[in-house]
Amino acid sequence: MSTGSARAEDFLEMLRQSRRGRLKLYIGFAAGVGKTYRMLEEAHALHKRGVGVVLGYIETHGRVETERLVDGLEIVPRRRIEYRGVVVEEMDLEAVIARRPDIVVVDEIAHTNVPGSKHRRRYQDVTELLDGGISVIGAFNIQHLESLNDLVERVTEVNVRETVPDSFLKQADQVVNLDLAVEDLLERLKAGKIYAPDKVEWALEHFFKDRKLATLRELALREVAESLERSGNGHGRDARSPADSGHALGRVMVCMSSFPARAAALLRRGSRMAGRLNTDWFVVYVETPREAPHLIDSEAQRFLLGNVEKARELGAEVVRLKSEDAAVALLDFARSHGVGHILLGRTREPRWRQMLGQSVAMRIIRDAEGFDVHLVSLDAEVKT
User: Fold this and answer.
1) What pLDDT sits at residue 242?
2) Which end of the chain, N or C, is more open, meaning fewer C-beta atoms within 10 Å of its C-beta?
3) What is the widest separation between alpha-carbon atoms in the chain?
């Protein structure tokens, strides 16, 4: 079952209407649901229509049915790079750009490129292709979506290190969910259609468990449904007016301090909330006199810079304010920028300041009339 439009004709019509490249994404909840297979099927359909389509990077994982579909399609040879004595093959971004196809098919978009590549991540390669007017059909699994990282780790007990920012998913002009009953997926696994026979038992004991797969399937269905709702039922980017697009519900503001190592959970919550409300969001950091760059230690600086980079990757507008009073500065910013939801991490300030209502968080909660204030735990995974 597919959610969203999977027809090659729809994507082709969209392609003809745009100078910037268009992006179509196939989303799955696990290996073996058919993402690569469906992309190759679409590539053949487009090729038969005379569209210039090439394979930029395809990973068949040795699946016979998938490998057969590669035949008859133009492949851009991969770039071979030696790294620490091992030859690694990557998509040759420059070769794809030089070839100038109408559409390029790119698998495993969450992949991290080998050091020395132009971009650190494959989704950044895709963004350059789109900016250059080349359309892309790509795929990744839902567990690689950045804002779901904490939740996926809690459910699957697997730390997914390669992620795709939500801002990338929001660029997609079409999103197709490849759904499959968990029972059918497990049958495919046991029949050797997903992994080699020697890997099946390990997969069944770890990632491919009923409960884990069912949760990931639900996440994929929900995320794609919300993506379609945000983009106007999947037909191009959001064409609704600002008044209809959710802005009336108020923008989202995440209040970020200089230190918390677990601030990524807070940022992911902000990204998820802004996505569901279909609105803009801010990450605001207030530099007080005692938090001037020359006064905070190197560890705090490292966390701050890392969190700023993460916020931008997730699609937030990062704002740095200077004020002697962080609570006042944050509330003033919220009032002047149409914020409706304020997200705070649990404070690290002394208990006595909290009891007296003097902590930044408590003062914001007390004075935030007209706002919805959300207090998020940073010590454990946040339910979404």
Assistant:
1) 37
2) N
3) 72
Supply the CATH number for residue 69's domain. 3.40.50.300
CB 136 within 8 Å of CB 130: yes
User: In 183-338, which ranges are E strands?
Assistant: 251-255, 281-287, 317-322
73-112 CB burial, b ≥16 within 10 A, e <16: beebeebeeeeeeeebebbbbeebbeeebbbbbbbbbbbe
Asked whether residue 52 falls in the same domain as residue 163, the answer is: yes
Within this chain, do residues 204 and 251 fall inside the same structural domain, yes or no?
no
- The residue among 287, 290, 206, 223 whose CA lies nearest residue 25 is 223
Whether residue 287 is found in the same domain as residue 176: no
* Tokens read off for 28: 């799955």
- Whether residue 381 is contained in a domain is answered as no
Strands 23-28 and 135-141: parallel
Asked if residue 240 is part of any domain, the answer here is: no
d(CA 250, CA 339): 5
Grouping H, G, I as helix, E, B as strand and the rest as coil, residue 79 is: strand
**For residue 316, which phi and psi values (nearest 5 degrees)?**
-85, 155
Whether residue 306 lies inside any domain: the answer is: yes
Q: Alpha-carbon distance 44 to 72, whole Å?
A: 8
Same domain, 9 and 101: yes
The answer to the question of residue 334 being in a domain is: yes
Q: What is the CATH number of the domain that holds 283?
A: 3.40.50.620
Pick from 27-41, 148-162, 312-326 the range whose average pLDDT is largest. 27-41
Query: 125 lies in which domain range?
Result: 2-230
What is the C-alpha to C-alpha distance for residues 253 and 284, in angstroms, rounded to an integer?
7
Residues 100/53, Cβ–Cβ less than 8 Å: no
Same domain, 97 and 17: yes
State both tokens at 114.
């080998």
DSSP for residue 231: T
Asked whether residue 290 falls in the same domain as residue 222, the answer is no
Give CA 269 to chain center in angstroms. Answer: 13
As a three-state string, the secondary structure of 273-293 is: HHHHHCCCEEEEEEECHHHCC
Residue 25's identity, in one-letter code, is L
Distance separating alpha carbons of residues 308 and 258, to the nearest angstrom: 10
Name the pTM for this structure. Answer: 0.69
By CB atoms closer than 10 A (0-12, 13-18, 19+), residue 314 is buried
Q: What is the pLDDT of residues 141-165, one digit of tens each?
A: 999 998 888 888 888 888 888 999 8
**Average pLDDT, whole number, for the chain?**
84
